[in-house]
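Q: Convert this sequence to structure tokens.
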Amino acid sequence: MTPPRTESPASAFSAELLAGLVAGGVRDVVLAPGSRSQALALVAAELEASGAIRLHVRIDERVAGFLALGLAVESGRPVPVITTSGTAVANLHPAVLEAHHSAVPIVVISADRPEELRGIGSNQTTVQPGIFAGALRAEWDVVAPAADDAPGRAAELARAIVAAAATGPVHVNLQLREPLSSVLHQWVEPVETPVATQEVSTGSTHTVAPGPKTVVIAGHGAGERAEQLARELDAPLFAEVSSGAHFGPQLVVAWRDLLPDLGDAIERVIVLGHPTLSREVPLLLQRPGLETIIVTTPGVEAYDPGHAASIIVDDVHVEGSGTDRSWAGRWVFSSRALLEKPDAEDVAIAVSDEPGNQAAFGRAVLSALRAPVDRRDLVEAVWRMTWPHDRLVLGASRLIREADRVVPGKRIRVHANRGLAGIDGTIATGIGIARAAQSGGDERSALGVTRVLLGDLALLHDAGSLLFGAGETRPRIQVIVGNDNGGTIFDGLEVAAGTPPERFERVMLTPQSVDLGQLAAAYGWEHRRVATRGELEEALTPSEGSVLVEVVLAR
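A:
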């Protein structure tokens, strides 16, 4: 499409650049307001008005970065996030780091002073080129546009951006001189948004045959290939809950508990994705005499703790078929037996079969409904209520680890920021995923709900993400917070037992006393408070709009 006519070189370049990104498949743009970036902002507003993009405006750049991350990870398309100069750019660093370690295509477009205003104390000016260090696939420090620029420079840059962002974040630092913007006239041609295509390159493939006692480990982002590989090898599958492979007949949920009895027999391990939820995986991989095959993820550094890998490859090809099904069977059936949880309601039903015990049945059911919610109750209820057309986002807290240990196999879309496993940006990421899923063209996903399950500190760290931009339609989203009054995940640290409780609590557990009902009301969210099992599933029932579900947990 042809950019509009304008008198400002900044506006002309911005229009050509963003139009080129749209032509390359960009559908969502995230914007944090600022003066130096005004040309980019005004062009984005025009593109939204023409129907070319969905524009998301956030006042906090850290929130904007993680919102872009969520939009990109769900849609698979590059998502630009536009900021002004100075600290605004630095606030994107956490999201850029997560995108780098998870190979998510976000495009940072930062406005900057021109060369002649650098290094002389100009207001809101710092060294923006290189600010993200080694966390980028590509970076451009673009010379300030001028009136006599040859046409096509920005369009060529846009094509390079889309290509480089295919495997992770990129940074475009755009020097801009005054006048920083001018009035945009009407777009000359209608906007088209073709779907971006990516050439997939193939690398080394390692051929394996069934035979050695093999386990397949699926870390975060491993994808369905891990489950397929486990079936081809008839091997036990140790799949993290956010791996994309936590389903299928080979899945062994309670594998950690079985390692002491069955682990010594393992002869070969094949790892896909990025395992982050247990100490047992790196310890297992460093065991002497074990054949370890690491399958890489495009754009992400190979997972090789202890430098113990036998071989690192792009893919694994299975040749032949297995004959010994007892190996996987021992793991699978033992795991299922360990996870069986006596349910008070089932016990009550059994009691009710005996004549004259109807009163006992009623008391048992009532007792189960009035029982307080524990972490296992919470993660199992959220898992049970989530279906393939929904999305589930798990924050970095005790809850993702609890889910990883107990929830059964289920083929649903689960996301977690496990590239660096930080608590920051969890709500923003979830909102990005929700907006992309519910407006991405998939009719079933458009009807689903996105659930974000996190701890109370992760919620408070990202409370600013509860604020939506003016005029935006709120997606169907539930932010479910397990409120145990602080960072109780640190209870498991070795020093916890030997440190005076009041000191450990103050500096590690960091207890909080925020009224989450009032916090929700301040941002216009519905608030539901859950204290018992009977209230839990009702609170998780989907509804239109945004809901904060507070689940009270004991320390």
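The first strand starts at residue 28 and ends at 31.
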